[in-house]
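Record type: monomer structure entry
Structure origin: computed from sequence
Chain ID: A
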Amino acid sequence: MPGENLSRDEARERAALLSVDGYEVSLDVRSAIGDAEGDGPRTFRSVTTIRFRCNEPGASGFADLIAPSVTAVSLNGRDLDPSEVFDGSRIALEDLAADNELVVDAQCAYSRTGEGLHRFVDPEDGEVYLYTQYEPADSRRVFAGFEQPDLKAPFRFEVRAPEEWTVWSNGAGERVDGVWRFAETKPISTYITCVVAGPYHYVTDSYERVFEDGTRLEIPLGAMCRKGLAPHFDADDVFLVTKQGLDFFHDHFDYPYPFGKYDQAFVPEYNLGAMENPGLVTFREEFIFRGKVTRASYEGRANVILHEMAHMWFGDLVTMEWWDDLWLKESFADFMGAFSLVGATRFTDGWITFANRRKAWAYRADQLPSTHPVTADIRDLQDAKLNFDGITYAKGASVLKQLVAYVGQDAFLEGARRYFKRHAYGNTRLGDLLSVLEETSGRDMAAWARSWLQTAGVNSLTPQVLLSSGGRVDELAVVQEAAESHPELRPHRVAVGLYRRTGDGSLERYARAEVDVDGPRTVVAELAGAEAPELVLVNDDDLTYCKTRFDETSLATLRDHLGALTDPLARALCWSALWNMTRDALLPARDFVGLVLRFAGRESDIGVLQMLHAWANSALTHYVAPDWRQAGGRLLGEGALRELRDAVPGSEQQLAWARFFAAVASDEAELRLLRGLLEGTEKIDGLEVDQELRWAFLEPLAAHGDADEGVLAAELARDDTASGKRHQVRCLAARPSAAVKAQAWAQVVESDGLSNALVEATIAGFEQASQRELIAPYAQKYFAAIERVWAERSIQIGMDVVRGLFPSLRDSQDTLDATDAWLSAHEDAAPALRRLVLEARDDLARALRGQACDAAVDAGR
């Protein structure tokens, strides 16, 4: 659509021309229930009144709106012809006055892709649920506005909804004469406004705080989900973490929560983890657990709750001017999520999860051809959509962790406090934050920012150990390297730990030194004279952002004694380093699989264990030599079953191994055990096969032809819910049949009949590692289809298709050549589309290098 992809230059020009005084938005969503009329999309009425000023009277501008039709447009009392001023995504505004009032009456479309106002029909009871999701620029699918973060304004919403529904928005609301009216918000950006409506199950609580000056703050709390999930909704735990977070941020930010109430809505078919709408945070409903999950799942939910809460200050109170500085909210929220998780909740090992899981996301993203500085160059909204990535979130958070080590925690937090007070309800750039940090730390932040925020790529740090004739450390140095494509060598504040085995065989740290690594080689003078180490761990305690490497002695120690490391963070860091070496083709993938089989059963941290399961499966799928896959799969299946039987009955380790066993089960005996566990003819002491675990067992059975359509239909009858439907769709697409694959492809690529959640489920089922030959013909079809899909479908569905259906399982040079041929022939394709294909190409090339490394193991024997 013309003008749908707003550019940074257009946004800057508009911000220089306009300032917004306020919005009044009236929505009528009574059409959400009942039969839709006509052949077009189901629509609702949206009437928006915007009052704004123009500092150049007589100038022209535009408002943003994506809608099937516009009924009426009025500018300063003048009726405009919608057919002349509305082009499908923009409303042209001519001859603006100094003070203006724009009224737009439109028919907007309900969404089935999770963008704009999403409409969901619960298959369990037929109830309809609505919620909005806008980031970065989808509020224009619900109301007319100036869709950019730096044109903040107060909002007043009113909503007409079915009589039996409740409606929520950012401000407190009440129903008067059949209309829900909501209190005016503080000045906020369009993309964090929100409406949730429907027969949601709603639970309330409250938070109170008395500050040192005697002032009292009371925050009404609410939490909601679909009625069908109410029996599983542990709202008490959600409220517990919420109150702990509010206490923590009030203690550290010295700025009271500014947005009145605090509702949290767990909503269906959500594309993201969560969204920080002030006063009404939205989450994916998968955070309500229908079956038994491990502590890691509860920790993950708590982290997301706290991440979104941190946004109330970093992002909502103070907002980046344009998406270039997205890190000003996302990096801070990611860091503050882990910081508050450890400081305020029962999840005191949160930094282990951060080191092992969040950083893995960052390391991958930072080695892609699309890597970018933390402060990115965002030319338009498509760029912005793709920039919600591992660099903006996890690398940025890692960099902030390094910054805290660099300037000190007190200076960092005092800088945050000044930042909030100085820029409340405003918009900022990088320099605004750096200036307050310079004030509080006394450090020159410009050089730090250039190295850490304005360059891309990840450094690797490797120890060099020279021993004296007496068996002590003569010199220990840290060697820093960078990729040729991103040669920046950064300053790192790191801890270097020395480890030896004790009398009982434990591998423990006996010496540690912190040092500023700067340049290609840094000597750690404090460790000279120490006893010779068996393991040197650079970046011990995870102070910096880097890839850790090992010297030969350390690597040999890990091969034999990794499970003997007593410190859980040190173990997690070693596992992460070994996985990075596997991805970088420095460690044969079968060796990594062997380490998991040997030592994962001794892993005490459940989050690390589940990450090891994911990595081992990825190693088998992508990085081992093809002729070792069958043997590797057999070893993983046998090892997983052994650990499953040996795990403490009823423990979360047992549950994690059960899920991993299902993921790698392949031979007849393993599949027969899964069938028996489902049918009740087999038992493993302590293992409760609840409904979620039943679906986990059914997918491999479906993928290997042991669960047909009738079996899956019977399971859906047993679990006739929205969650059950997603599981069934995934399992149906997993069946090993050419007709099944053709149908799944047509449903996703050739039709827009599926909702976003069912598109995701179908793609997940279609891509089965055991079916490489079956799906091989779709490699050519993929390259023929993706440009059309990108042009015709929403950006969210486009991203799902381009990423999810890339023929990564057709891992050969032929596929790499076909990818290069497409890129060469489509140099003018949308930059965001090319980025996705380039990223998939890089993953494929990395997999082929890993396979070559692994194949060399056989060649060397």
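Annotation 1: The longest helix spans residues 831-859.
Annotation 2: The mean pLDDT is 95.
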